[in-house]
Design brief:
Seven copies of one chain form a homoheptamer. By secondary structure, chain A is an alpha+beta fold. Helices cover 37% and strands 23% of the residues of chain A. Chains A, B, C, D, E, F, G: It is found in: Cytoplasm.
């Protein structure tokens, strides 16, 4: 364990390890992720759900423009937490990779391969000088050959597969909520409710349909679908989250 | 929260995060935006309005040369606040992108796609070393398929869509004015008046036609139009802004 | 506002903003402009005038070699203030740009387009590392389609259009003289007298024909003309400047 | 031997030796290896075994996604310890090298040649500036022409061949266990038990099938095989490790 | 005006201005010029003269190898003061430029154009990082279309035209001698005597033919001629310089 | 002679000399050589011998994988001391150079030419920035046209030819042993014994066949031969080294 | 004149001048030259002689491998003093240049042109960043069109022509010996004796044939010849140097 002055000797770039083998810039990028509002992913037998909290600075801002959930391919969506412009950059990387796969091999890219292409890109920014790491975590959610998949990427370029996971601000509370309430038998609607509940767990105010963005990739269609605002209102009305 | 000496350890370039996950150079670039005179955008059902305050250093300077509003394509205009030469650079990026779209696909570029091409360019200057961020914010305003759009870009490379928004010096006062006076039912002329009122809200002196530059993209023509000086005088005569 | 030690933390290159959003190296380049002798531009209905003070180190030096006024195209001239070699570099940029326009499009370049090509070049030296800003300000003067134009460029890469303007050493005095004495009705000879008066306003000694270099682009010929030494003597004899 | 302040003078990059001829960044990268959970390799006459401990952050995380063992070619697998994303990068290097060999020469690559291609890649990151060393150690295990091979790579780019070896967290305990229990006559199942025992030696808790990942390359098939979870349970049930 | 410690903050390279707009590295390069022995140029109606003092370290050194005067083209010569190897580099630049002009346009290059090509090269080394300025000043002397020309270049990349000029060590004394004794009516031999007198003015010892190198470009031949040692002896015998 | 603080001012890279003309990084690389176990070369009329001490970390490590002696061409071998991965890199350089010679000229490369190609490569890493010197010394041994040759390379890129030489840890003791016991009349077996004796001279323990690696290039075959373990045992049994 | 702390501010690279116009790294490279053993060159009417002292570290080292004299072309040899690997690099530059001249123009390169190609190469390493100067001085000796030539190059990239000159360690003593004993009438053997005497002047011990390396380029053959060891012994026997 190092004190602050020692830490400062090794935290100015991605090209140096600290004496105890840490990459401080990658750890600081994880702090940038925590500064963003949270996102949540839930995998159910019927499909995957991604949901994101979106903060709006002013009543005149279009909530839809605080875009934290992006369709990447017919069967894959990505939710982000952290530095917004960095997220968009990685989403572009993923989209191009999905298109290339389609063009070259005439096949839909697997969710895992797609995730790896993104984490490979992230890793390069943690080893070579002249740039900073990506200050963003992603949830990559999709269905392939009838199987729902849900991956998380972090700023070190590592990926993990989850049944249900939270990233960004309030991660601890949301993840605790997921661990307490997750069941492998819930259906897709149950998944949406669970995701919204996890997001709600990080805030004292009630969650409204304006505050969230949700998308699913159901197993039967294998097709990305944004959940309409009205549906969200319906769900939020029905459910009351105990915190 | 860091003290000044700690902050100075992490604020010399875009390639390092601070221990709490911030990019100081991007935040300093936002200060450069605040140093510029303000610009305002208003979206109405009949079209979008962009308006800018222009400061003139001397009676012998041509006011028209303090150019803060630029036509980018037939149907899109950009207003800026901050570092003037940086703004011109980004406007060139936008113009080239619009022309490329026209040449390659024979289609008019969408306002959102155009905005994204600009924020992608901005983002790169916040992640790779050897350069500084752009010290400018933009309002990208246009109409596509009959729908008026109004986007803001900031120095981090993030974009937001607005009904009405102010950038640059006096942003707080102007934005407060907009939030108080904006209505979704105003027509284009009402939009111009609202924009001028928001600009006036940042100054103690009365606003004259010499002090402002205004352009619109009406829904019916989908064509960028600079508002003539005479029209501005007429509007300013009719309206008296209570501050 | 920062104290000196804080300023020194952010003034070693063009790739960093100070915490209050300033680019110190660009501001220091403006100081290099002030170290040069002054130049003045005057726009009249009959054409534009540019005039420059030239300092000569020794009676054996050829005054004509202290070149501060350059013909750039048939219809455009440039006067400079600041770092002499930097000025020559930008004049070359302008000349090449004018030739390219002629070769590619068979058209004479507009004064504004020409100015922008120069300020684009200047801007790049204020954003990318590995170089310093240009330590020079220029006056770009010309006539196009019968209309006289007069632009100033500064080390940030911004341009302004003027009726009459002074750059370089003694700018404040010269500009004050111009504001006091400029009238939109003066003819070209009046413009020359006004320019010489503005230059004279910065010095206690009388101005002689050896001390100045003057060129015009009259509206009727749209052709750059250096004002001959004899003509300058005649004008200086006739006029006595009260300071 | 140097004190800490002297050490800090030479530990900021791979391009400088310390006065006593050490490369501190490479030594720090070895610390990154120790921060990872351990992996173990065992060579038996019947084939090679690689086994890895995998830590799981949450019950909702898919254990299979904490991938520390990778198939590289039909006859070769790699286990890693240390920085996960760095490991994936090197595994990609190895895979591409194996494919190239197959495509160019129509031959299966030898385990030693494959290992060398990886250590060559690692070495370059220890000599040239602009990057950091790889914070990962690998075990490269395979069979060629009926002969089982087991190599270790370290962050300096050195490789060693072993009969049985442990890398990563708890290396000392695991290696001591191997030295005490290894025999050249054990069969493949014995090798798996030995590897699991070495992993168990580093922890106070009992090892479950969830905590480990094991693969073998048997001599008779010369083909990489992941050991199924059920088999692991069976083995773990049979064996009780005395620590 | 800055004190030494402030100066040191801005004098480590060519890519930064000091707060008062100076380029210290260029000023230090001027000091390198002063460290060299002096050179003198004189323009007469009959042609131009360049003369240089050469210091010889040992009686065994060939004086002819201390080359400070170089033929660049049939009609142009260059004398230098300062860093010897830098001078040779710039002379090569000039020679290549002269040859290119001949090859491309079939024309002899003008002395002014040739000088500008050299100062353009010098300027680049004062603006871009990764190099130092040239520590040398040159006198470019030639005749074109019957007109003798004499230019000086300095380390900032500026050029000046002179009737008579001294560079390098002892410049002040030599230049004072020139200003006192120069007349526009002297013939070429008078020019040689004047140049030698200016060189002699910087030293207490008598000047011998061994100490100097002289070349001329007469108007009638427009051809560079090194003045033979015997001629120099004759001239030095005839003349006695009063200091 | 400099004190430590002064030394530290000039020892951070290969691109600076110290005030007394030293390259500290090259000297530190020599320390890296001393950190390695020793290697010895002996030239006899019948051929050349290279021998190396190899340290083994664990009884489970394959001694053969601690490779310090490499065949480079049919008639040339290289022994190394110092940074293992650096040695492998230089051996690759040598192998490629030998192959190129064969392919281009159809000739076997001379030992001296081969050595020079390696030292040229080493030198470049001592003059250009962005990398560190190679931390390794090599013995290049071979026979050409019936003549045995033995060269040493050091981290500065210098090569020396020897009759018998030691590099790496314990060099002083080994070299003293060689100087005391070398005779130009020994045969190849005598050369092997001498080399083993020199290696033994650096250690208190008896040398076993496991501790060493030996190769020869006999004059009659001009072919590299690794000395088998059994032969080594025989020789070690016969000989008892008095230390 | 600067004190040490001020000097240290300007001596870390070749891209900065000190305030008094010096390039410290070039001066430090001259110290590297002084650290080498001396070399001497003598020009006689019958040809040129180069001689070098070579230090041998051990009786087992081949003296011939301490190569300080190199043939560069049929008619040119180079002797060096200073950093050995740097010398070899420059000798390669010279050899390639000589070959290119032969191939392109079918002509033997002049000694002066060859020397300039080397000093041009040296100069580049004193102006551009990213490398250090060459720590070596050379004597380039040859005969062209019947005329013997002898040049010295120094680390600044300057060349001088000499009748007789010493470089490297002991230069002062050797040069003093040359100045005292040189005569323009000596023959080639006298030149060899003079050179050996100059080398002997720097040491208290008698010079043996083992300690020196001598080569000549006689005027009659215009062909480089190494002086055989036996001849050197004969000369050294005949001559006794009084010191």
């Amino acid at each position: 364990m190092q004190n602050q002055s020692q830490q400062q000797a090794y935290d100015r770039g991605t090209t140096i390890f600290s004496p105890d083998g840490r990459l401080y810039q990658v750890e600081y990028a994880r702090e940038a992720v925590k500064r963003g509002t949270g996102s949540v992913g839930v995998r159910t037998p019927d499909g995957v759900v991604i949901a994101a909290n979106r903060s709006v600075r002013s009543p005149l801002m279009e909530q839809s423009s605080v875009e934290k959930i992006h369709q990447v391919d017919d069967h894959v969506g990505i939710a982000s937490a952290g530095h917004v412009a960095d997220a968009r950059k990685l989403v572009d990387v993923a989209r191009r990779r999905a298109q290339t796969e389609q063009l070259r091999y005439g096949e839909t890219i697997s969710v895992e391969t797609l995730t790896r292409s993104v984490t490979d890109h992230i890793q390069e920014y943690t080893q070579t000088g002249g740039a900073r790491p990506f200050g963003v975590a992603l949830l990559v959610a999709g269905v392939e050959h009838g199987e729902p998949r849900l991956f998380e990427t972090d700023p070190s370029g590592t990926d993990y597969e989850w049944q249900a996971v939270a990233i960004g601000g309030g991660r601890e509370d949301s993840q605790a909520y997921l661990e307490e309430n997750y069941s492998q038998e819930i259906d897709l609607d149950g998944g949406i409710e669970l995701a919204l509940g996890a997001l709600a767990a990080t805030s004292e105010d009630d969650l409204t349909a304006d505050d969230v963005e949700v998308a699913t990739v159901p197993v039967d269609t294998e097709t990305y679908e944004a959940v309409p605002r009205d549906d969200l209102e319906g769900i939020l009305d029905e459910v009351s989250f105990d915190e």
